[in-house]
Amino acid sequence: MNTREAKEILLLYRGTIDDSDPQFRAALDYAKTDPELGQWLREQTKCYDTVRSKLRAIEPPLGLSEKIVRRRPIPFPRDWSRIGQLAAAILISASVTALLMKWSERPHRSVAGAQEILVTGEVLDMTCYIAYHLSGPDHAECARVCIRNGGPVGIKAQDGKVYLLTAQPGESVNAQLADYAAKTVTIRGKETARDGFAQLQVEEIRKS
Amino acid sequence: MSADLEFENLVRLYYRDLYRFGLSLTGSEADAADLTQETFYIWANKGHQLQKAASVKSWLFTTLHREFLKTCRRRNRFSDESIDESTGDLPNIPANCAERADSRTLLRILGEIGEDFRAPLVLYYMEDLSYKEIADVLALPLGTVQSRIARAKIQLLRRLSETNLPLEQAK
Known about the structure:
Chain A contains nine helices and five strands; from the N terminus they run H-H-H-H-H-H-E-H-H-E-E-H-E-E. Chain A is of the alpha+beta class. In chain A, helix 1 crosses helix 2. The N and C termini of chain A lie far apart (99 Å). Chains A and B meet through helix 1, helix 3 and helix 4 of A and helix 1, helix 2, helix 4, helix 5 and helix 7 of B.
């Protein structure tokens, strides 16, 4: 190493910040043997410190940090598993609703020959029940809201069979059944089935 | 620690450094404040993706620099003066040339240096970042960063010594 090479390296030397950087060690050792280079290095380091301290003396405008904190955006929590669940629930709800609408548009013959039965069981919010196996008292409030808002409603009979509850075409049973969500009632209605899916067209609701 | 408190602490810890970096890059106090604010808001939305807590400072500087480059592309308002490839002889510049300059003069001279050279030089002077960290912030190879700093530093010192500087009031 000669003086020029050492200078080229030490031009970037900043003092303590760079002491652990091996690229400077040899040049620093060389500077110890060359008094003129040593003096140049001291002056350069002093000059570096001067520029640094003047630049670091710049102060931000008053109140900047408070303004940043005050206007902090509230990030939207992107919990993808929850978003997936929500999307699945919407999809199922839309499918069941579409199915219901299609059924309701069918002529009365679909239930004309249907058998009238009595079913006693728990009133279900069908979306949560099918999608997430949610039912029972712990889920009562959610079920009540979902049913009141038009979500598909069902009943789980004591033998475990589940019926989709429907009304006469153009009508809805949601308003009457919302307050019975997760409770046990007896429904008198006409039983039909389509594609293996059991439906009960409600004629009468009895508190159990 | 709550997210709000964590954000507030982060702002208090780094807003000065980020503002100075932004001011050196833009030469404008308003733009520097905007860049600083935007950097922290990006952190609020994306900071949770950062794996290593130790990299927070580098992440913030990287983000501010990226936002600055985006602004530059939109406005193209800064002169992008390049520096000759060869540095020529190493400077024989008086070591006290910086003592007579105040912060504002330093900023003005920094602003005359091309952006490619200014950003590494500012990080070199202002922040306690290793050369590797500076290279990471600017997404440049280590050798390029060191070469740019060396050339920009010579340029800065030359301009400082050429400028007819008044003595500071305090002196």
